[in-house]
Amino acid sequence: MKNLLFPTVLITVIAFSSCQPKVDKVEEVIIKKNPTEYSTGAVLWQQHSAEYEALCYQAYNIGERRIDEIVAEKKNPDKPLAVVMDIDETVLDNSPYNATLIANQISYSKKTWMEWTAMQSADLVPGALEFIQYAKSKGVEVVFISNRMEEELDDTYQNIIDRGVDTIAKENYYLKSTTSSKDERREIVSDKYEVVLMFGDNLGDFNGVFDKATVIDRKKNVANFRPLFGDKLIILPNPMYGEWEGALYNYDFSRSNAQKDSNRMNALNIYSIGK
Ligand SMILES: [Mg+2]
């Protein structure tokens, strides 16, 4: 099932002579598809399904229970306890950005992303505020490790403060300088704190084995990590974007929109209707 069912390019024959029809020119007409239309369902689900909110509450409720257990277990820890949290789609909901891409028929770009984060307009993911307040009230520090760029720090910090999370110092924000992998930053945080819980929407928020891994290897590693989910690792839903999608393109984001469309269609597990 290649591009036959989902054509992005049509060849049309145009122009005729006065007496006898003959082909003068073959012109390639590109039918421009909206490059982000395929994510409409995902964005609508994040913005409008109560199930999305229930999953977020579920994640943060588990987190609060784990905080109780951990604090009871670790009476005199060698290092202060900390929770590591990703920011995007873990603490901040960026669905208006993705919705705006669809409405404007454009793809993600650093320029539009930076314009969005500069607006400081993202709402909190349901349950995040209460969880952070709960962890802090139990003496557990909160550290953000995010792949927002360091130059986005001030806007991100202000956005989060404006939404009521005003207890996390700027030095507890570990944003991206050069590398997307979070391993290095996790090590720095682990030198200072005993990291007891990690929250993220992308598996790379938990461990570097997931970085740039294939679809198959991501699933294998998830199976290996299975006992840790709901224990030390707590995942939030994000149907809009993430490495799950990058893996479909072999992390080659320079592919054309038509190629990516084809990659997605070819990745569908289907069966033959009526057979
Ligand atoms: Mg994220």
UniProtKB/TrEMBL annotation:
Signal peptide: none annotated. Transmembrane segments: none annotated. The keyword Lipoprotein applies. Keywords: Lipoprotein, Signal. GO terms for cellular component: cell outer membrane. Coiled coil: none annotated. InterPro entries: Acid_phosphat_B-like (IPR005519), HAD-like_sf (IPR036412), HAD_sf (IPR023214), Lipo_e_P4 (IPR006423). NCBIfam families: lipo_e_P4. This is 5'-nucleotidase, lipoprotein e(P4) family. The lineage of its organism: Bacteria, Pseudomonadati, Bacteroidota, Flavobacteriia, Flavobacteriales.
